[in-house]
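Intended use. Records like the one below are meant for learning the mapping from a protein sequence to its folded structure. Do not use them to infer anything beyond what is encoded.
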Amino acid sequence: MLGRTLYNNTLTAMKQKVIVIAGTTGVGKSQLAVELATRYNGEIINSDTMQVYRDIPIVSNKHPMVERNGIPHHVMDFLPWDKEYYLHQFEIDARRAIDDIISRGKLPIIVGGTHYYLQFLFDKYINTATTKNDDDDVNHLETNSIREVAESEQIILDSKDKNKIFNTLQEIDPKIASRYHPNDERRVRRMLEIYFTTGNRPSELFAAQTKQLRYDTLFLWLYSDPVALDIRLDSRVDDMVKAGALAEIDQLYNFYLSQPEHNDHGGVWQVIGFKEFLPWLKDGKRNEKLWNEGVDMMKLHTRQYARRQIKWIQKMLIPDIGGDIFVLDATDLTQWHQVVGDRASDITSIFLNIKKNDDINKIRAPKELMHLISDEQTVGKKRGISNEDCQHFTCEICKDHDGNGLVAIGSKQWATHLKSRRHKGNLTRGSKKAAYEKWKLTQQNNTQ
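Structure written out for the chain above:
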């Protein structure tokens, strides 16, 4: 055991150092990244799925050039709008950027809102092959085994046909397919992508995965109280409109119209700030009511996105890194330098072995925010998503947006659906319709 401990400690010491800044949209992640990069000779790697696309800097919330302080930004502003960008592509680009930055003696700082992308930091991330160990009969993961996705496989991934994607995954790996709703196109496609890039079933890879980080990584979490954040996000949408977001929305709409199929799903069309305005655009940009509704929907979807980002950090990221994260309170921006900038700089100095202060490592979060990283809010929540109750139930009375029977995953979700007002309402309407059809048939018989 001692030998293994010494070995793991040696590996950690040999690992290249990387900083990750996580947090919701609108908390100042990019600002902090620039500050740390300026102070500690760093360069920034974008991990936001919308900011990889060319142009539209306002709608995609790219940090303004004038505020970047000359710091190079990688994996940003390069992808054409008609291309999809997958996790395995981000991994290749991000790792290449990290190697390049470190080779020049600089510090990689990863920042962005697509926290799902951070899986590439782990050896457990599935760019792996599963092999059998003869000694202990346990599956192990070996890195560097990504293969090129075949053209026929890429066609399936890009098909936009969620039924085809789900059915393909179901054929390949029914065990992992049972964990996802057929309409959860992004995650289902990701599981299929794992199979196509590794040749191994995701269920087998997940069962064998390890949780070791590839890099010696410092995780910083910028957090804002939701009430204050909501106000800030609403104001930011208004500022984006004033700054010229309309011109970018027009630009996107013109491209949208030029496509053979007007498909607003996936790729650049996931950006918050386009689909919300489609009714207004399609109406010829004449209806002020539709414009105002678009602005309101953009604000709502931005706030909802921020909530999802927090859940992902708590349920996925923190359990995976064993709680090794520092929380910075970005609620009051007037206190930025004291509670965010200076504290982040001190933590970074210790991480880079520039100075020593064991007390900072003991204080993972301000006292009032310690609950955010408690086991109840993190590890406990993750356990809840790994249960074995993954049976699919289909309600033929209630329909989804495509007119198919509504699918519920797990007996709890199914029971909740059966008790819902929607289901009971549909039952009542169905009974009334059946009674009416019976009466109608009786009337027809009586007239004959």
